[in-house]
Specification:
The chain is an alpha/beta fold and 282 residues long. The chain has one domain. It is built from eight helices and seven strands; from the N terminus they run βαβββαβαααβααβα. The protein has a seven-stranded parallel sheet with strand order 1-2-3-4-5-6-7, with helices on both faces. Helix 2 links the parallel strand 4 and strand 5. Helix 2 packs parallel to helix 5. The protein is globular, with a radius of gyration of 20 Å.
Length: 282
């Protein structure tokens, strides 16, 4: 890509998607080699584009480096719009994306929850990784109480037990809001204060997948997911009544953020639109 050009690359908008045909390969070794070759190619592209990139959309989780590894070794000083399947600590090589204003985490099915990730707090992730964030969208969200806690704290929507029917959640309301006066609440308030420009949030819950839907309905994971949905709806209703600050849009559940949607939103951003961060239905 660089060998045929004497001038440095100036890529401002980039969409990455790929299909790895592992099932058609002869053996596991070939599948591993193909994935390594793909990872290397993506790394070369991103490191070359990083200095000038403004908007980046990555469709496949297979295009991301292993969890905890930076997306590229080069910094992204001008990146303002980012849509990626996952977002995690150390996502950027220089620890933060200083110009990022709009972040879309498109496959939140990996559970943004501190019970799954040690010392993993959603507010801290955003404050440290994207301190100038203005627009946030979470798609495919499953079983995450961390997001409920963050939304209540950041949007200023207090938790009230009056509308809850689950005895367990009436006894464990810390799953929906930080316990007042706790160290967790103090840290969350500090992170929220750092994100003082974040005022527009879009949430699209995912649809749990299981080989046997009837069996899944009886699992603890399904129960957690439906309680999370109830929590999101509770926050959205209070916010719609004028409680709290900022803007919140709760979308209908969706099983997948498809490539057609990625491309449509990416092209809309290039034209100057809001892409996946639109706060109103056209």
């Amino acid at each position: 890509m660089q060998a045929n050009s004497t001038a440095p690359l100036r890529i401002r908008y980039l969409l990455l998607s790929a299909t790895v045909g592992a099932s058609d390969l002869k053996d596991e070794g070939e599948a591993v080699a193909e994935k390594e070759n793909l990872s290397f190619a993506i790394s070369v592209i991103l490191n070359s584009a990083a200095p000038t990139l403004r908007a980046l959309a990555i469709h496949n989780v297979s295009l991301l480096p292993p969890l905890g590894k930076p997306l590229a070794t080069a910094p992204f000083p001008h990146l303002t719009h980012l849509s990626v399947p996952h977002f995690y600590p150390s996502f950027a090589a220089d620890a933060a994306l200083p110009s990022l204003r709009a972040l879309h985490i498109s496959q939140c099915a990996y559970r943004l929850d501190p019970r799954s990730y040690a010392d993993f707090e959603f507010g801290a992730l955003l404050a440290e990784g994207a301190p100038r964030l203005t627009y946030l969208r979470l798609s495919g969200l499953l079983e995450s109480y961390t997001v409920l806690q963050f939304l209540r704290m950041h949007l200023g929507v207090p938790f009230t037990a009056a509308s809850w029917h689950s005895d367990y959640f009436l006894e464990h309301d810390e799953l929906h809001a930080y316990v007042e006066g706790s160290p967790e609440a103090a840290r969350a308030a500090a992170h929220s204060a750092q994100l003082n420009e974040l005022r527009h949030i879009v949430v699209q819950p995912g649809i749990p997948r299981d080989d046997d839907d009837a069996e899944f309905e009886c699992t603890y994971g399904a129960w957690e997911h439906y309680e999370m949905l109830a929590g999101l709806q509770d926050i959205a209703k209070d916010h719609a009544r004028g409680v709290g600050i900022g803007e919140l849009r709760l979308l209908a559940e969706s099983a997948e953020y498809t490539f057609d949607e990625v491309r449509r939103d990416w092209e809309d951003v290039i034209r100057g639109g809001d892409g996946p961060w639109a706060m109103e239905t056209e």
